[in-house]
Amino acid sequence: MAGLGDVLEWAKREVGARVPKADLDQRDADYIREQLPGLWLLASLYFRADVRGLDRIPPDGPVLLVGNHSGGNLPPDTFVFTLAFCSYFGVERPFYQLAHNLVVSMPGLGSLRKFGTVAANHDNATLALKSGGALLVYPGGDYEVFRPSWKRHEVDFGGRKGYVKLSREAGVPIVPIASVGGQEAALFLDRGQWLARLLMVDKIARLKSVPILLAPPWGLAVSDMVPRLPLPTKITIEVQDPIAPEEIAAGDDDTVHNRVEGALQSAVDRLAAERRFPVIG
Question: Which of 117, 205, 220, 254 is the one with CA 20 to 30 A from 72?
Fold first, then answer.
């Protein structure tokens, strides 16, 4: 008779088997070109998108873009930055974004893969950088993206530093990407890490949080897997100065990580000081 461990292992394999394999060729420049005008208009009107400092990103070649992350499973910061990057550098420049396995597996979100979204793991990230692409990562993952809304201006990767090793191995610069506004797209009440452990989805699906939030049209919701309407919060994003590969190679993981988090926190504090009201901006 199968024990609990066997059942969990079977469920983990089943979930893993449904994660699409990373195929960089799924990114479709023609599709992005067709969708970009309408989506940028939506971002400009609904989120009043304000993206600054794109000229600080190296104009070509591989680069690791490291951002603080907000907004749950419908993160407006990723939406806005992806559109801004493609508009500024052109759709032909290869650009990829890492996302949680469940996000890239969800029905109806195949269009994300056409924009360059791949499952978040070291192999996929390395593949994207070796191809010469720009890669956007959010080390804080579900820990940061589901933080309570009253901590919306805190940058906290939860101690995750794997991106530093990734950059060092690939020999690419790190460019910090700071954003504010995303955690006001819903009222996040609790990360729900205790709930993830209780439901054992941390073992089955690498899901460390089952958040509790208030969001239209459902009101109180447990987990963020059901489609909802993000509030029209103003999204402001600012690119910070790059950290050169030589500086990354010369420093240890803690030094580089603290520099990245420090740059992001300083920028978030400054951008947050410009906001007069939540959502309204």
Answer: 254
Can you give 245-277 as a three-state secondary structure string?
A: HHHHHHCCHHHHHHHHHHHHHHHHHHHHHHCCC
Which residues form the domain of 37? 4-187+233-274
* CB atoms closer than 10 angstroms to residue 241: 11
- Please state the pTM of the whole predicted model: 0.90
Sign (positive or negative) of CA dihedral 155, 159, 160, 163: positive
Which CATH number do you get for residue 67?
3.40.1130
Does 67 fall in a domain? yes
**Model pLDDT, residue 190:** 96
With respect to residue 109, please indicate whether it lies within any of the assigned structural domains: yes
When divided into structural domains, the chain yields a total of: 1
Question: Cβ–Cβ contacts within 10 Å for residue 112, how many?
Answer: 18
Distance CA 260, CA 91 (A): 27
Alpha-carbon 168 to chain mean position: 20
Query: Has residue 219 been placed in a domain?
Result: no
In angstroms, the CA 199 to CA 103 distance is 19
- Whether 193 maps to a domain, the answer reads no
Cβ neighbours of 149 (radius 10 Å)? 16
Sheet holding 117-119, edge to edge: 50-52, 236-239, 174-180, 63-67, 134-137, 95-99, 117-119
pLDDT in tens, 239-275: 999 999 999 999 999 999 999 999 999 999 999 999 9
